[in-house]
Amino acid sequence: MPKKMFVIFGVSNILWMVFAVSQAFKVGIFPDESKIFAQIGDSVSLTCSATGCGSPTFSWRTQMDSPLNGKVRNEGTTSTLIMDPVSFEDEHQYLCTAICKDKKLEKAIRVEIYSFSKDPEIHLSSPPEVGKPVTVTCSVPDVYPFERLEIELLKGNRSMKVQEFLEPSEKKAQETKSLEVTFSPTDEDIGTALVCQATLRIYDDDSPPKVRKTTKELEVYKKMFTVEISPGPQIAAQVGDSVVLTCDVRDCESPSFSWRTQIDSPLNGKVRREGSKSTLTLSPVSFENEHFYLCTVICGQKKLEKGIQVELYSFPSDPEIEMSGPLVSGNPVTVSCRVPNVYPSDRLEIELFKGESIMMNKTFLEDVSKKALETKSLEMTFIPTIEDTGNVLVCLAQLPIDEMEFEPKQRQSTQILYVNVAPRDTTILVSPSSILEEGSSVNMTCSSNGLPAPQILWSRQLSNGDLQPISENATLSFMSTKMEDSGIYVCEGINQGGISRKEVNLIIQVAPKDIQLTAFPSESVKEGDTVIISCICGNVPPTLIILKKKAETGYTVLKSTGGAYTIHRAQLEDAGVYQCESKNEVGSQLRSLTLDVKGRESNKDYFSPEFLVLYCASALILTAIGIIIYFARKANMTGSYSLVEAQRTKV
């Protein structure tokens, strides 16, 4: 050690010994008070220290020599008594004894116990309502010593009650003390704070007391309000209709409303406030509205909810009965019973009755259920008879969903059966006859059997086969017939069951007229020429045409073709008078011409180019005339025939 440091150390030791010898032996205790207050459950340390003694000896005891209930720890010139946790057994006067050689000193300190560890509690006897008495209880739990406790209840800044507990307790124990106040809330009390303040005066001097307080906001209602939702807890709504859900509040002046679905889907509706009511309108109701709806009402600080289930169905119209065609006795017909826009369709039942007898029924339980409007139908084929007329066909549709309340759950349609009998036995009666003279009158009457009675329709058949309607009367009359009235007339008996047809050929005859008798190429020819004698009559119907040649004994009938007679290589004896007679049942007409045949200069056969040309031309002319006659006669109803030999038309 350096010499300098040794000198300093020695000096300091000498000074310390001098200071120690000069300091007197003393004992102190910490905390440096005659009394301390310890809360039950806390940890308390009492420290005793000695001065003026290098190695003091310490001991601790209570004034009443009770057990210490603590731990002592000595460290040099200090000794510490630790009580952890403090209890009622630790409330004593504690003495610390210090011995230094032959000297003994004591120091005392008192430990007093208290309990004030929890804030007060505020309790209400019932939810406060305006005008209704309510009791407020302010409790202070686990207090000791309670004779030093003071409890005050304040409403806002105004004291309602103060209570002290001056009577000392008979035993050392923690107790709960409380204060009660009964009052009737007013509108002004809404939002006011209740304050419970507890004061424990544990000190004997002017030290500030220990204070704890609790604040509770006063939630005052007018009184308990109620919420009703209508039409009820459940409603069956038809798709497409309008539904109004109403949330009605009673005993709350200013309620606030909100609507939602239980699964927070969009409302798809319109909300409207009407005083103490709120309505949710769903219009039109669709499948998106099939939910459980909740109406939430807040009145003051209280909230209530009411719910309603909206369930959907669709059964808007009566069944529709349709037939595949008119009812005709003996003809199969299919009847269809359709129920449109049904939901849920798998619950539908359809029955078909004829009179009181069931014809067919059908259910749709096996159909795949889906959220959609569907049209379901029943079809069956039957053969109607005349006895079915007057019977009632009934289509009954039912939607029996017992868990849903709606009306109607049953719909029906009826149809009276009218069975038709197709027209038959159609006849035409012609009076006086179907063959008449021009200018005569005729009645043609048509009749037809059927059910309902067939309608009569007269038509005339045109040249192309089409029918031209002319009358709906049963009798078709001609007062003064004309030749152009001739033709085929058709009568039709018509009803819903079908058509029956009959026809008659009306022939209007006139006396022969407009006869044309000609000689081609001329009425004066040369011997050896070819001559064509032809007769044409313009009558319709055609008449009988007879060509004759006058002889000494009378007239000789010629063999004509189509009213034409050909003379090849005319001879002198071919000259003479030729006659054409046209006749029918009505009358006849004659025409005559004289053919002059001139002889040639020589008897030799004469053949020249001119004759050849004439012969060829005459052949072509004869062919053309034949064609003309054919078409003329065809146009005048089939050419030349004898009406004398024709039989009358039978109808």
Tell me, what is the CATH class of the largest domain? Mainly Beta
Report strand %.
over 45%
What does the main sheet amount to? 7 strands, mixed
Q: Compute the gyration radius: what is it?
A: 70 Å
Category by helix and strand content: mainly beta
Under the CATH scheme, the architecture of the largest domain is Sandwich
Shape: rod-shaped
Domain count, please report it: 6
Can you say what the CATH homologous superfamily of the largest domain is?
Immunoglobulins
Number of strands: 46
Overall pLDDT metric: 85
Which residues form runs of ≥5 with pLDDT under 50? 1-22, 603-615, 630-651
Number of helices: 2
Q: For this entry, what is the oligomeric state of its chains?
A: single chain
Task: Give the CATH topology of the largest domain.
Answer: Immunoglobulin-like
How far apart lie the N and C ends? Answer: 174 Å
Description:
The structure is a single chain. Mean pLDDT is 85; it is low at 1-22, 603-615 and 630-651. Strands 2, 4, 7, 8, 9, 10 and 13 form a seven-stranded mixed beta sheet that branches. This protein has a five-stranded mixed beta sheet with strand order 32-38-37-34-35, with no helix packed on it. Strands 40-46-45-42-43 form a five-stranded mixed beta sheet, with no helix packed on it. It is built from two helices and 46 strands. The longest helix has 27 residues, at 609-635. It is mostly beta strands. The chain has six domains: 27-114, Sandwich (Immunoglobulin-like); 117-217, Immunoglobulin-like (Sandwich); 226-313, Immunoglobulin-like, CATH 2.60.40; 323-416, Immunoglobulin-like (Sandwich), CATH 2.60.40; 421-509, Immunoglobulin-like, CATH 2.60.40; 516-635, Sandwich (Immunoglobulin-like). Helix content is 7%, strand content 50%.
